């Protein structure tokens, strides 16, 4: 980290924090009381953006969790993967260890599940999504294909951008913490004219830090301007733009030997790296979004909404190193004797993507006596164009070895120009959907929906699929509703071909679930209990008669129970729980062991959070919070591997990631327009490994770390 950059950001943000503001004291209470997101107790009455309608959560026959910005602030969370910890049924998955990666209801959702303002947000390898510019995070569990088309069976995550508002304010933030963290944030909103027809909002983030793994660091600039034009009483247009630039030196996962499997040389340090010091790993990203959200009300009963976004994205990496067994490997009685790690060199690689996504839908509300209908008809379209080039990494494990007992990080890496490749790709998807949400009096609702998609990818591969959903809710008492639903999903399997040269048909999924949603009349208790069964079908598996070709013979199933609840016994207390029991297993496959648990899925996952803020007296505004997370053990890998070199798969390759429990703590104090917050994560410095891909890729868990933030509201 550059000293000059640190000094500059501290000086600029510190000066802004100290500036007097006209009427600052008078505006302090309004700023402090401003809701950045739905009040926790009101969540069941909220209408999530991911629903594309005005149907409140308590009438939606699907499990949807909303994470507020206040919850993120209270926990000191800046990464999506950590934000999702408080959602029942969500656990970590493996995407190079470095990116945001998670599973929903037992199925990997790291790719193709991120939506921004209801439109797909794609990335070539992965991403660490910025949370500072968000109003809320919505987790839609189970199939979402009826509204969104191609999507993972487990669910999707919709990120909702901050929009301009009617009030004028400026929120400034400064943070420091572990790994030489320096962070500055600005969230500014203002009316551009007296009538309030033009509103503007700007979110800025600068963040620079090292990391808990040696030689790793990250630097981000994030700029998100938004402008709203109220054309009249019935029309509104909001321009949504983003620019983000990331310059990172990422870390890499490590071997299972010395972490969760025994090594003759003891445990690997949690900060151990196989990346270089002089030739540091480089991972750069740059993207910008240009888009809008438009809505027009023809009448109280008929309206139109449309969103559109164009994205230009560049990503590149070089000298990013990954473990590749042991050059001198020898397993004796289940213990690895080798100490010279083989290494793969990734890069130089670069890719540029250009995406266009749009969704438009009409909503019609009809009343016929006691029956009220809300009919949704929409069309969406997404398109991706990409070009990429790899100038030659090196996938000979012995070409760039590293002795873990006496690591020498100085030699430059040897690349293999003969391994260079390049190309491009394009894909598009068009979907037509219709949904009818029918209310029968004040208690019962029925939701019927269907969508037909046409998808096309490289090589002229075409897929088309119908995705239905049927659901119902019934209010047993005011504020408590039973719900049930049945739905299906699909995902095209581009790149998988049969021996005859035909593309595989899409992977499909089926979900059946029931549960209860709760919100007491005083909104002090809200919650949801869900019971479900997801079946993933048409899973690509290797053709046993024709290696390197595939057939759709795989099937996986996940059954589970989820419990989420938030209780506010008094305005000063907030208590929440998220618990999931998951039985996720392989039910049919040609390669993976049938009956085995799916990797990275804990049977039991529990998250507890409690916060108390002193409401009055000399300590008014002082807050304390505690969080607890427990994950039971997980299967670290499903794919059979030969780890001892005898040419046969070894049972030890299906290793176990041990269970772990983490405790986080936080202190806060709000005084007038000022706020200060200290968060300490992994308070007891637990050594743990949350996810894995295989024997050569186990993700280390972050050790104890802290974050101190100061905010000023004008």
UniProtKB/TrEMBL annotation:
Its main location: membrane. GO terms for molecular function: siderophore uptake transmembrane transporter activity; signaling receptor activity. Residues 1-23 form the signal peptide. Gene3D superfamilies: TonB-dependent receptor, beta-barrel domain (2.40.170.20), TonB-dependent receptor, plug domain (2.170.130.10). One of its GO terms (biological process) is siderophore transport. It is found in: Cell outer membrane. InterPro entries: Beta-barrel_TonB, Beta-barrel_TonB_sf, Plug_dom, Plug_dom_sf, TonB-dep_rcpt-like, TonB_sidphr_rcpt. Transmembrane segments: none annotated. Residues 235-683 form the TonB-dependent receptor-like beta-barrel domain. Belongs to the TonB-dependent receptor family. This is Iron complex outermembrane recepter protein. It comes from Rhizorhabdus histidinilytica.
């Amino acid at each position: 980290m550059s000293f000059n950059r640190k000094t500059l950001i501290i000086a600029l943000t510190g000066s802004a924090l100290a500036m007097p503001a006209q009427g600052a004291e008078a505006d302090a209470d309004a700023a402090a009381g401003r809701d950045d997101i739905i009040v926790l107790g009101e969540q069941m009455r909220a209408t999530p953006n991911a629903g594309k309608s005005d149907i409140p959560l308590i009438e939606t026959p699907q499990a949807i969790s909303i994470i507020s910005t206040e919850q993120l602030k209270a926990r000191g969370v800046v990464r999506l993967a950590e934000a999702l910890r408080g959602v029942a049924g969500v656990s970590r998955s493996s995407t190079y260890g470095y990116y945001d990666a998670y599973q929903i209801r037992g199925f990997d959702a790291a790719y193709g599940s991120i939506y921004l303002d209801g439109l797909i947000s794609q990335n070539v390898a992965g991403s660490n999504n910025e949370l500072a510019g968000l109003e809320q995070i919505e987790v839609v569990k189970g199939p979402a294909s009826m509204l969104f088309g191609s999507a993972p069976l487990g669910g999707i995550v919709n990120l909702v951008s901050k929009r301009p508002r009617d009030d004028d304010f400026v929120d400034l933030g400064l943070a420091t913490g572990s790994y030489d963290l320096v962070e500055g944030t600005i969230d500014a909103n203002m009316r551009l004219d007296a009538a309030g027809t033009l509103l503007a909002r700007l979110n800025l983030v600068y963040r620079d830090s090292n990391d808990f793994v040696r030689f790793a660091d990250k630097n981000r600039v994030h700029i998100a301007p938004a402008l709203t034009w109220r054309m009249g009483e019935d029309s509104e247009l909001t321009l949504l733009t983003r620019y983000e630039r990331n310059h990172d030196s990422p870390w890499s996962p490590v071997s299972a030997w010395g972490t969760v499997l025994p090594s003759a040389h003891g445990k690997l340090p949690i900060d151990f790296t196989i990346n270089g010091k002089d030739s540091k790993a480089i991972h750069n990203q740059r993207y910008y979004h240009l888009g809008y959200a438009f809505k027009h009300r023809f009448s109280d009963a008929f309206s139109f909404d449309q969103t559109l976004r164009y994205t230009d994205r560049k990503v590149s990496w070089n000298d990013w190193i990954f473990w590749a067994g042991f050059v001198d490997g020898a397993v004796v009685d289940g213990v690895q004797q080798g100490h010279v790690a083989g290494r793969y060199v990734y890069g130089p690689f670069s890719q540029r993507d250009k995406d266009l996504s749009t969704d438009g839908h009409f909503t019609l509300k009809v009343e016929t006596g006691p029956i009220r209908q809300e009919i949704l008809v929409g069309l969406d379209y997404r398109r991706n164009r990409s070009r990429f080039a790899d100038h030659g990494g090196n996938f000979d494990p012995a070409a760039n070895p590293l002795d873990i007992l006496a690591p020498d990080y100085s030699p430059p890496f040897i690349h293999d120009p003969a391994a260079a490749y390049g190309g491009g790709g394009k894909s598009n998807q068009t979907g037509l959907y219709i949904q009818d949400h029918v209310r029968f009096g004040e208690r019962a609702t029925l939701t019927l929906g269907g969508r037909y998609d046409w998808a096309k990818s490289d090589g002229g591969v075409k897929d088309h699929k119908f995705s239905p959903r049927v659901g119902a809710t019934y209010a047993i008492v005011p504020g408590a509703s039973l719900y049930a639903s049945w739905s299906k999903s699909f995902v095209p399997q581009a790149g998988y071909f049969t021996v005859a040269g035909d593309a595989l048909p899409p992977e499909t999924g089926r979900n059946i679930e029931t549960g209860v949603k709760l919100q007491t009349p005083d909104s002090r208790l809200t919650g949801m209990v869900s019971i479900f069964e997801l079946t993933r079908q048409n899973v690509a598996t290797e053709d046993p008669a024709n290696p390197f070709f595939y057939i759709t013979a795989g099937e996986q199933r996940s059954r589970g129970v989820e419990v989420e609840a938030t209780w506010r016994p008094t305005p000063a207390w907030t208590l929440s729980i998220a618990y999931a029991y998951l039985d996720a297993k392989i039910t049919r496959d040609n390669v993976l062991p049938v009956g085995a648990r799916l990797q990275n899925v804990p049977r039991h996952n529990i998250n507890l959070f409690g916060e108390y803020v002193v409401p009055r007296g000399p300590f008014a505004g002082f807050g304390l919070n505690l969080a607890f997370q427990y994950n039971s053990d997980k299967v670290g890998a499903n794919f059979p591997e030969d780890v001892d070199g005898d040419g046969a798969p070894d049972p030890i390759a299906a290793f176990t990631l041990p269970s772990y429990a983490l405790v986080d703590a936080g202190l806060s104090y709000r005084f007038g327009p000022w706020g200060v917050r200290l968060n300490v994560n992994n308070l007891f410095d637990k050594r743990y490994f949350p996810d894995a891909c295989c024997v050569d890729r186990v993700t280390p868990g972050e050790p104890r770390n802290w974050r101190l933030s100061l905010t000023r509201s004008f």
